[in-house]
Amino acid sequence: MNVAPSITPSIISKVPVMSEITFKAIREFIYTLTGIYFQDNKKYLLESRISKRLQALHLTQYEDYFQFIKFGVKKDDEKKFLYDAITINETYFFRNEPQFEIFEKTLMPELIKIKSSNPRPKIRVWSSASSSGEEAHTLAMIFLEKIKPKYPALEFEVVGTDISPSILDIARKGVYREYSVRNMPKLYLEKYFHAEDGRFIVNDNVRKLVRFDHMNLFDQPRMRGMLNFDIVFCCNVLIYFDAKSKIQVISQLYDSISRGGYLFIGYAESLHGISSAFKIMNFPKAIVYKKE
Ligand SMILES: C[S@@+](CC[C@H](N)C(=O)[O-])C[C@H]1O[C@@H](n2cnc3c(N)ncnc32)[C@H](O)[C@@H]1O
Asked: Is the dihedral of CA 165, 168, 172, 173 positive or negative?
């Protein structure tokens, strides 16, 4: 279920109040569309976020917004703004270091060994809730720094997808603030970025390995087309879903992973009661789910 940060009372006081009926209708609409569920105690958050769309569209009531997004001629365009409004995009480079260490030292060498008989070995990784791309770019940098020198013939591709169109614009540009790079080892910052006007820009040789695409994890036809990934990262997004939504997403990700491939989820997330299809691999500071 949604766990959203709190906002200050001064912000709350400026936004119009949403009726209970409209709250439930909009909440259900968002849940069906995205799997994100706003609990009763997060009504103020939905009000605050949708009130900005009311202003932008010159609407005065949430009821009108609901009609607009459900039946309006421009409903599909508005959905993109809604996705931006309701998502929480917190992320940064090297966010979960133990996972990246396992990726580099255990999973990549094992996958490379399996693929060694292939004349053109390739490893494909999917950052499935990529936000502004820090996770995807971290993986590409680790590949360039640690893997490529040992296996120059290996091809490597990272696909980053997210539901929020505006966050993907940032990912594609690869321009970051200091906040995003605060956990980054100095070597990576110096070697794979250049600084401009206080921003940190990812170098082209990293960006060449990564492709970003818009994707809702609940868009079943699109999800069915995401196949043959060796490793999938689905980190810090399951916390926004209820059990039913988690089961749906994880079962589709299972199909996206090749046999012998792996799934990472967030540090605070669990597949307990969600899926028993994966083999659980326990490492000292992280868990990896293997598709056997
Ligand atoms: C907190 S960020 C996590 C970013 C990154 N994976 C990490 O762990 O640092 C969660 C991301 O999930 C995305 N998201 C939420 N619901 C989604 C959905 N139904 N489909 C795809 N992405 C979704 C949000 O837009 C947001 O960028």
From this structure: positive
